[in-house]
Write a structure and sequence with these properties.
It contains two helices and no strands. With about 80 residues, it is an all-alpha fold. The chain is rod-shaped, with a radius of gyration of 27 Å. The mean pLDDT is about 80.
Length: about 80
């Protein structure tokens, strides 16, 4: 199998453009993306922001305040639970 090796930089929205490939238009190729260096920035900023927002929402949704003890009537007939 013939190979062509080059480098590229990931652009907005995860796009990678490779120019100057010495192959005919319409040629089917296999593309393997390998990180150069230590892989810093592996998690794209928008994805990191989504992770932070998800964790913040989970922290907010977590019930951390005790509701106290309930008697049997309250368990089956609750008007408002704060």
């Amino acid at each position: 199998m013939d190979t062509f090796e080059t480098t590229a930089t990931v652009e907005d929205r995860g796009q990678i453009h490779v120019e100057g490939v010495p192959l005919a238009t319409g040629t089917h190729v296999e593309v393997i993306v390998d990180l150069i260096g230590d892989g810093a920035g592996l998690l794209a900023a928008p994805a990191a922001d989504r992770v932070e927002r998800l964790l913040a929402a989970l922290d907010k949704a977590r019930n951390v305040e005790s509701l106290g003890a309930f008697d049997r009537g309250e368990l089956y007939d609750r008007q408002v639970l704060r």
